[in-house]
Amino acid sequence: MSENRLTAHGRWLASLAAAAIAIGISIATPQVNATVRGQTVATQQVNATVRGQTPVFPGAEWERVKDTRAIGYCQDRLDAATTRVKQLPTTAMLVIVGGRVLWEYGDLTRVSYLASVRKSILAMLYGNYVQSGRIRLDKTMADLKIDDVEGLLPAEKAATVGDLLASRSGVYHPAANAACTGCGSTAGDPPGPRGSVPHGTYFLYNNWDFNVLGTIFEQETGSTIYDAFERDLAKPASLQDFDRAAQRKSENRRASLHPAYHFYLSTRDMARVGYLMLRGGAWAGRQLVPRDWVQRMVTPVTRVADMNPESYRKGPFGYGYLWWIWDGPFNTGPYRHAYSGIGAVGQFITVLPELDMVVAHKTEPRAGGASVSRPDYLSVIDAVIASRCAS
């Protein structure tokens, strides 16, 4: 994130405060405690609230904001965001504020591949089973009898479920699929040969960790990931386009025994997933994901200054439990306590609690098709944020 963007965020705070007073939105949220790697840290609650109002949840359809200016957004400036997104190969994008549609672009109903956003969804599924004790974060790969092609090394079997959730396992066994476009099983090179990196000590985005978490989930719960998603999240949150039969894994058993668990969702259903996170795991009176687990997922385990490879330290993201988190000097203004699921080609579910906002963005993968980079995506979010004006 550039110095100019940080300066813009500072200017934005003043206008945000004025607009919030005008429309009665509280942007000060109470603090709760979360435990990260044995330390208690003060963190902000996961969602902003509107004073005196019950949170709005969509029914069969999302409601629309009737008067954008009444909630502090100017239509002509939103039109500028539309102009910006039209310059990109974006398939669809949806912005929710206060539980209603503020702005949309493209075909929100089209279902396609979510790439690595699947990992953030799996983290959500873990919550109920961690709370019940069915899944224990301190169990090791040895405890769980997890192995792989040609065997894991003894040091690798010491990695815990918690290490995998934070992508800090130190297990650099080949994965069934690439971690990112143009890379191998990890995004960046491991710092040493297999077995040389103690578990829990080094962040490296690692598809072996993520895929094995899928195996562990199914082994420990006795449910497939897709059945659990349908039962625990999709049906209670009334996802509109979810098709259980359309979900499918991909395998490469020559490389690894642990398949990738791909998800296929529409943009408007991605927004429901993000809105569930914004509301602390609650949906219309039901706690679908434990609130403390939501907070734990989006509390940094690896700070931006400690990310690997070193290029990631330029920001803006640290990493929690399978969610990317604006951290350090980037955790400011409208991005304060913000976090995102991020997938290849241009898949994003982003939550900005300071604005009571969720953004879902999809770029449908096509052979030879273009992608939307993180900077390009963030430029559209910035354009939406810049549409703020006095009500």
Task: Characterize the structure shown.
- There is one protein chain.
- Residues 1-52 have low confidence and may be disordered.
- With 391 residues, the chain is α+β, with helices and mostly antiparallel strands.
- The protein is globular, with a radius of gyration of 20 Å.
- Strands 6-5-17-16-15-14-13 form a seven-stranded antiparallel beta sheet, sandwiched between helices.
- The protein has one domain: Beta-lactamase.
- Helix content is 28%, strand content 17%.
Query: N-to-C terminal Cα separation, in Å?
Result: 29 Å
Number of domains: 1
Strand order of the largest sheet: 6-5-17-16-15-14-13
Share of helical residues: 25-40%
Q: Determine the mean pLDDT.
A: 88
Coarse morphology: globular
| CATH fold description | Beta-lactamase
**CATH class, anyone?**
Alpha Beta
Q: What radius of gyration results from the CA coordinates?
A: 20 Å
Strand content bin: 15-25%
Secondary structure tally, helices: 9
- Tally the beta strands: 17
Name some characteristics of this structure.
391 residues; seven-stranded antiparallel β-sheet; Beta-lactamase; disordered N terminus; alpha+beta; two-stranded antiparallel ribbon; 9 helices
Compact summary:
This protein has a single domain, classed as Beta-lactamase, CATH 3.40.710. It contains nine helices and 17 strands.
Secondary structure elements and pairings:
Layout: H1 3-23, E1 25-26, E2 31-36, E3 39-44, E4 49-50, H2 75-85, E5 92-97, E6 100-106, E7 111-113, H3 117-132, H4 161-165, H5 207-221, H6 225-234, E8 248-250, E9 260-262, E10 264-266, H7 267-278, E11 282-283, E12 286-287, H8 291-297, E13 317-319, E14 324-326, E15 339-343, E16 347-352, E17 357-362, H9 374-385
Antiparallel strand pairs: 1-4, 2-3, 5-6, 5-17, 7-10, 8-9, 11-12, 13-14, 14-15, 15-16, 16-17
Helix pairs in contact: 2-9, 3-5
